[in-house]
Amino acid sequence: MTEHFDVVVVGAGISGIGAGYHLQAKCPDRTFVILEGRERLGGTWDLFRYPGIRSDSDMYTLGYSFKPWTNPKAIADGPDILHYLEETAREYDVERHIRYQHMVERASWSTADARWTVETKHGDANEVVRFTCNFLFMCSGYYRYESGYTPDFAGMERFGGRIVHPQKWTQDIDYAGKRVVIIGSGATAVTLVPAMAEKAEHVTMLQRSPSYVVSRPGEDWLANWLRERLPAKLAYGITRWKNVLLGMFFFNLSRKRPATVKRAILDQVRQELGPDFDVAKHFTPRYNPWDQRMCLVPNGDLFAAIRGGDASVVTDQIQTFTEAGLLLESGEELEADLIVTATGLEMEVLGGLEVLVDGEAVEAGRKLSYKGMMLSDVPNMASSMGYTNASWTLKCDLTCEYVCRLLNHMKEHGYDRCTPRKTDASVEEEPWIDFSSGYIQRSIHRFPKQGSKRPWRLHQNYMLDLVTLGYGALDDGTMEFSSSQAASSADRSAAATGVVPG
Q1: Tens digit of each residue's pLDDT (9 = 90 or more) over 224-233
Q2: How confident is the model at residue 500 (pLDDT cuts 50, 70, 90)?
Q3: What's the N-to-C CA distance of the chain in angstroms?
Q4: Of 315, 341, 367, at which residue does a domain stop?
Q5: Cis bond leading into 455, ω under 30°?
Q6: How would you classify the pairing of strands 333-335 and 127-138?
């Protein structure tokens, strides 16, 4: 038996739960289901279990626009974020729409029927279960849940201890009193170091090259002050906008005056670590601020671990793993009992979904991205993708609101198909994003391109998106609306009169 819904949402993480709320609030007459491949909701915040797991965005912007974050922590840990998501799903009655252990593998669009057929593998038996829908909303994120990225280091098989990727962290990993080497310099590495340093004998962060690391207070004093004096939603809204505007200002300043921002960041690091620490070697990247995503450390916890001697930073390259640890190209040897490869993610387009339109396979890398959420020539499908220079949820909220506007517009005008079409021949293809991060550069060829002008241009700008996605014209000359019902009616009329339309 195949169940039919107006909308199928794929993924019950932060994006999928947000989609469920918006569909209920703005399209209450539409039926929908949320298909989740895992046994629990939460996505990233349920999958990652490594020590210290936390957000690198403040919770007043990572939280939903409709659900105030009331915890005093501005930079929250994974368990608190998961609790917030679970509470949201219960409070807004989203969880009853979730079907767990339904791993979506294929989606096939039929123009004649104006519907998708979505194929899933259900449960431990991998039973094939199919759903049909009029609109497919992908909320599955951008990385593979099955495994992270680990380079093929020489000699890994020789190491006598344990090697683990943070994405595969399990509760049996014991690092108390042990020597730990964490390979990497990104957000995961700078989170792991201070958290593991609390129990380990010593933690070494081994990096090939540095990243920008910025310290921020773990709590937002203004947010907490406002919450004591104003209604929760008003206090949350003020703090949210304050942080949005500050974030945009900092990003734009980084692009316009990179040398000034770089100097300010490095001055902060020097204040944290003192004049004798080699900031130039260990915390001065080769790229400009915001050419890659910055690392956020609450209350300077990474720097505190280094100052206290519980952690250290080594900037070098690995020659080979040895039985006792790592041999570096400089000749230095790092002994370790446990090595953590915080070396990045494996990016994945549309959650690895196989997509077919009228029997033809869709290759995302050959498509243009319409408004950062739909693919050229692919009907009735949107994808929720967050910002790279700001909180993920800011863009996801706007995407959900746009999808609801689109669905309501189609119903009002009797359309059952909406398809972005490249009608402007002057639009040139450009890379999906201009970040230089390794995890993006390894996979960017598989992602859709952006165009050189609107609406194909991907703007990492919340204010601009707020206007264009929230209030811009839906029938913009690029989005093609059509109705199979209207075509069927015309065919029946032609058959009755003997006149062929067109």
Answers
A1: 999 999 999 9
A2: very low
A3: 39
A4: 341
A5: yes
A6: unpaired
